[in-house]
Amino acid sequence: MDSTKRPLVFAANWKMNKTIGEAIDYVYALRPLVKTSPNQILLGVPFTVLRVMADYCQGSNLIPGAQNMYEKDEGAFTGEISGKMLLDAGAKFVILGHSERRGIFHESNEFVNQKLKKAVEIGLKPIVCIGETGEEREQGHTTKVLTHQLKRSLEGLDPTQIGDIMLAYEPLWAIGTNNTATPAVSQDVHLFCRRWISKEFGEKAADKIVILYGGSVRPDNAAAILEQKDIDGVLVGTASLSAESFGKIVNCLETKHLNFT
Ligand code: PGA
User: Fold this and answer.
1) pTM across the whole model
2) pLDDT tens digits for 193-241?
3) Is residue 258 predicted with pLDDT exceeding 50?
4) What's the rounded Cα separation, in Å, for the pair 127 and 152?
5) 220 CB neighbour count, 10 Å cutoff
6) Which end of the chain is more exposed for a tag (fewer CB within 10 A), N or C?
């Protein structure tokens, strides 16, 4: 499968961090550090700073997005935010099914699937997160767990839509732990996911789908991860909170996939 058909993506996941003032300072600090980067730089930010981020990212190569959404457009859903509202606030993408949402807020694969379908329908680029726990890996259940998550989360999408979404493989044992999956381990899983996509949705979709790795990515380990053939980018939590360290990650490897058009 041909990796030159895919862009290289650096996505920040700020989680529940940063006030409006802090977000503006961050954009001012990050813009000059990454202004020559040819790659896609996505900032997954809290709802409250989205509008401001959309304004401050204008005219730069930074792309703002959100970390969650609800599947309905509007109505009596106290506390929820629709995909339509995200688009209106300037979001270009949305992270769906992050393990913190699945774990802390009990989101099921079916719920993620509903949101995914809505995001695709309205033109909001989804990043769908999947990943196994440490215990599941130790018991040899990684591929079984991932297959289940992929099957249920992506159900009902057609092959042309699959090529347009992003997946993020985020092993739970690696998130926020400093315990990064080795490049070889992540490459194996990414290849497994790409082959599964190829089997279920065809080779074209598998060639096109962007698969990110997430879990303790830092400036000192990002390049080795990104050198892997089936890893098309990174989803970064902790190390994305400082513009300086996220800038270093974005600039760690500028040449991969440069012939992507
Ligand atoms: P981390 O988080 O980089 O802090 O491990 C990644 C994530 O949860 O997306």
Assistant:
1) 0.95
2) 999 999 999 999 999 999 999 999 999 999 999 999 999 999 999 999 9
3) no
4) 15
5) 13
6) C
